[in-house]
Write a structure and sequence with these properties.
The complex is a heterodimer of chains A (222) and B (403).
Chain A (H helix, E strand, L loop, with lengths): L30 H10 L4 H21 L5 H17 L9 H27 L15 H14 L4 H12 L4 H8 L3 H19 L7 H7 L6
Chain B lengths: L19 H46 L9 E4 L7 E7 L2 E6 L3 E8 L2 E15 L6 E6 L2 E5 L3 E6 L6 E7 L1 E6 L6 E4 L2 E5 L5 E5 L26 H4 L5 H10 L5 H6 L3 H19 L2 H13 L3 H14 L4 H16 L4 H14 L6 H14 L3 H14 L6 H8 L1
Parallel strand pairs in B: 5-6
Antiparallel strand pairs in B: 1-4, 2-3, 3-5, 4-5, 5-8, 6-7, 7-10, 8-9, 9-12, 10-11, 12-13
Classes of the chains: A mainly alpha (222), B alpha+beta (403).
C-alpha cells in the first residue's frame, strides 16, 4: 500500500528497489549524509534512517517469514543493529547503505531461521502461522500461501532463505548470492536442493497445482 | 485468484500486512529506542567508568590499609644451627626480624593489622616500624610480648618457659598467660623470666644475657618467692642477685664456650668432660647442642655419633626427627656418603613430610639420587618437589630431571 506524503519524491529510492508498494520516503538526502548524521548522533537521524530503509527491511522480513507475530520485533532488532553498526562507523562505503542494510537484514533473518529450525527439530517447537495471511482477502490465495510457508518451514535455513529471496521476493540469482554473502555457485546449489525438496513436498498436494508455478515463474531469467 | 490457475502465483497480497499505521508504529518505536539507547549508553559508560575508578581506589586504599591483604597460614621460620649463623627476614612491610643460629619460630597474620610470631626456641630480634600501626604479638611459652613499634629481641631458652626480652627502642608489654598484670619494658631495659616464672626488669647496661641462651640459668632460689603467684613473681630483682647469677654462669663448661661460639674449645671441653658420659647423661636439647658443637668444632664424625645417640635415646623428640636431616647433611657434605645421605633425607621426609627442612631435604635428595644414577627415584622426588614447592630453589633442577 502506498500513501503519498506531501514532500515525497515520485521516484522510488534504491532501498525499496522499486518493487514493493511500501516506500515511505519523506526526505531526499544522500545515504552518505544519513550515515554521517547517525555517526554524529544528530537529532532526527533515526527517523530519517528508518524512512530510508524501514520499508526494505519490512519487505524482506515479510517475504522470508510471511509476516509472523514476531515481525515487528524483528524489524525493530534489525533497525537497531543497523543503527549500532552505523554509529560505530562500520559502513565502509556510505553510498552502498541500502545494500548494506539489506545484508544486515538477511543476516539477522538467517540467524532467526536457524534458531527456529533448531527449536523445531530438537524441541518440537511449532512455528506460529504467518499472521499476515489474515490480511489476504482471497480464501484460495490465503490457503495457498499458508501451504507455501508451511512447506518452507521444512527446509534448512540457508535453503529457505535462498528459496524465499529467489522465488517469493523474485530476486535475481546474483542478488541472492550477494545478499546471502556467498558465491553464485553456492546459491545455485542451495536453490537446487531447496527446489527439489519443495517439489517433492508439493507433490503431496495435487490439489494445489499453482505450487509448482512458484518455481516455473523464475526459471527463464535465471 | 484461482487455486488451480497454474500460471499465476503472487505473494503481493501479503503486503497488505504492512500498512501505514504499522510503519508509523515501527518508526516511532525505532526513534524512541535509539533516543533511549543513546542516552542510556552514555549514562552506562559514565556509571561504568565511575564504578571502575571507585573500585580501583577502594582496592588501593584497602591494600594500603592492609584490609585486603590476605591473612596467611603459618609460616615456619628457622635458622638451623648447622647451616645458619643469622637470618634476616621481612615478615611484613615495616617488620624485619633477625634470627640467630638455632632459632625456630612460626609467624601468622591474624588480621589485616595484626600479626603473631611464636618462638619455639632461640633468639629473634624485631625491628617494627611504628608508622605502620601494626599490632605484633610475640609468644614465647607462657609469655606474650605485645608491641606496636619498636626494636627489641625475644629469646626463648631450651626450657620452654625461660625468656629474655631486650628492648632497644620503644616500649613493649609482656603478659604472662593467666595473668592480668602486664610488665612494661622500656627502651634500654631487659626482662628476664626463668623456668619458674620469676621475672626481672633491669637496665640493658647490666652484664648481658643476650648471647644465645640455649640453656638459660635458673634464678637463684634465694630470690624466689615461694608463695608468690606467677603475676607477683614478675618483679624486679635486686641487681646483686642478677650479678650473682651471672657470676654463677661464668663457668667455662662446654656449653658456656658454645654460647660464646668458641666451638673448637667447646668441643675440646666436652671431650675432656668425657664424651661417653655426656652421651649417656645429657638431655635431648643439650645433646642436640653438643652435636652442633661437634659439627662447628670440626668433628663431623663425632657430630654424627651424637646425632645418632639423640635418635636412639629420644626417638620421639623433635630434635631426633630434625637430627635425620642434620645427619643427611653431615653424610653428604662432610663424610662424602651420598648413599647414606639419601637414606637420611628420605628418613627425614618420611618422619616429617611437612617439616621445616622438608623443602631442602627434597631438593638435596633429588640431586643426590640423580648423582647416584637412581633416575626413576630422582624423577619421583622431582615430581614431589615440584608439586609441593613449585617455586623452590631446586625447582629448576627438578624440572630438568622431569624432562
Amino acid at each position: 500500500m502506498h500513501v503519498p506524503l506531501p514532500n515525497e519524491s515520485s521516484a522510488p529510492h534504491p532501498c525499496g528497489q522499486g518493487r514493493a508498494s511500501l516506500e515511505v520516503l519523506s526526505w531526499q538526502g544522500s545515504d552518505a549524509q544519513i550515515a554521517e548524521w547517525v555517526r554524529e548522533g544528530q537529532p532526527g537521524a533515526a527517523a530519517k534512517l528508518f524512512d530510508r530503509c524501514g520499508a526494505e527491511i519490512n519487505r524482506l522480513v515479510l517475504r522470508v517469514l510471511g509476516g509472523d507475530p514476531e515481525h515487528d520485533d524483528l524489524v525493530h532488532d534489525i533497525f537497531l543493529k543497523v543503527w549500532s553498526e552505523l554509529e560505530k562507523g562500520r559502513l565502509r562505503n556510505p553510498e552502498a547503505l541500502s545494500a548494506w542494510v539489506a545484508a544486515i537484514t538477511i543476516n539477522t533473518l538467517y540467524k532467526e531461521l536457524r534458531k527456529r529450525y533448531v527449536r523445531r527439530r530438537f524441541f518440537h517447537w511449532d512455528e506460529p502461522p504467518p499472521e499476515a495471511l489474515s490480511h489476504v482477502p482471497d480464501a484460495d490465495s490465503r490457503e495457498l500461501l499458508q501451504l507455501v510457508y508451511r512447506l518452507l518451514k521444512e527446509l534448512a535455513p540457508d535453503e529457505r532463505l535462498a528459496f524465499s529471496l529467489r522465488h517469493l521476493d523474485q530476486r535475481k540469482l546474483v542478488d541472492v548470492a550477494s545478499l546471502c554473502g556467498c558465491s553464485l555457485a553456492t546459491v545455485k546449489r542451495r536453490l537446487a536442493r531447496a527446489e527439489a525438496r519443495f517439489v517433492a513436498m508439493s507433490s503431496r498436494y495435487p490439489e494445489f497445482p499453482r505450487l509448482s508455478a512458484i518455481l516455473s515463474a523464475r526459471t527463464e531469467d535465471a | 485468484m484461482n487455486v488451480h490457475d497454474h500460471a499465476h502465483f503472487d505473494v503481493g497480497p501479503l503486503d497488505e500486512f504492512i500498512g501505514e499505521s504499522r510503519i508509523a508504529r515501527q518508526r516511532q518505536a525505532a526513534v524512541e529506542a535509539v533516543a533511549k539507547r543513546t542516552g542510556k549508553g552514555r549514562h552506562r559508560a559514565w556509571v561504568t567508568v565511575s564504578a571502575v575508578a571507585m573500585l580501583v581506589m577502594g582496592l588501593f586504599v584497602g591494600w594500603r590499609a592492609g584490609i585486603l591483604q590476605p591473612t596467611s597460614g603459618k609460616v615456619e621460620l628457622a635458622c638451623p644451627a648447622l647451616d645458619c649463623v643469622s637470618k634476616e627476614t621481612l615478615l611484613a612491610p615495616g617488620a624485619r626480624v633477625e634470627m640467630t643460629s638455632g632459632a625456630h619460630a612460626s609467624s601468622e597474620r591474624l588480621a589485616h593489622n595484626s600479626y603473631e610470631v611464636v618462638i619455639h626456641r632461640g633468639r629473634m630480634t624485631f625491628d617494627i616500624d611504628p608508622a605502620r600501626k601494626l599490632a605484633w604479638k610475640v609468644r614465647a611459652g607462657r609469655y606474650v610480648v605485645e608491641v606496636i613499634g619498636t626494636v627489641f629481641s625475644v629469646t626463648r631458652g631450651v626450657h620452654s618457659d625461660e625468656l629474655l626480652v631486650s628492648v632497644t627502642r620503644g616500649r613493649v608489654k609482656v603478659v604472662t598467660s593467666g595473668s592480668t598484670t602486664p610488665v612494661f619494658v622500656e627502651g634500654g631495659q631487659q626482662f628476664y623470666a626463668d623456668a619458674q616464672g620469676l621475672g626481672v626488669v633491669r637496665d640493658s647496661s647490666a652484664p648481658s644475657l643476650s648471647v644465645v641462651p640455649t640453656d638459660l640459668p635458673v634464678v637463684p632460689s634465694a630470690v624466689r618467692s615461694e608463695t608468690a603467684s606467677p603475676d607477683e613473681a614478675i618483679r624486679p630483682l635486686p641487681s646483686s642477685s642478677v650479678h650473682a647469677r651471672e657470676e654463677a654462669e661464668a663457668g667455662s663448661s662446654w656449653q658456656d664456650l658454645a654460647e660464646r661460639r668458641s666451638y673448637a674449645e667447646a668441643w675440646s671441653a666436652a671431650r675432656s668432660e668425657g664424651l661417653d658420659r655426656l652421651l649417656n647423661t645429657l638431655g635431648v636439647k643439650p645433646l642436640a647442642r653438643l652435636a652442633d658443637v661437634a659439627r662447628f668444632g670440626g668433628s663431623p664424625a663425632d657430630a654424627k655419633q651424637v646425632l645418632l645417640t639423640v635418635r636412639q635415646r629420644f626417638p620421639n623428640a623433635p630434635a631426633a626427627r630434625d637430627g635425620a636431616f642434620f645427619l643427611a647433611r653431615l653424610e653428604a657434605d662432610h663424610l662424602g656418603h651420598a648413599q647414606d645421605a639419601t637414606t637420611w633425607f628420605q628418613t627425614y621426609l618420611t618422619e616429617q613430610p611437612a617439616g621445616v627442612f622438608a623443602q631442602e631435604a627434597r631438593g638435596r635428595a633429588l640431586l643426590l639420587l640423580d648423582k647416584l644414577g637412581r633416575t626413576s627415584e630422582a624423577r619421583a622426588m622431582a615430581r614431589q618437589y615440584l608439586e609441593r614447592h613449585p617455586g623452590g630453589p631446586y625447582s629448576a633442577s627438578a624440572r630438568r630431571l622431569m624432562r
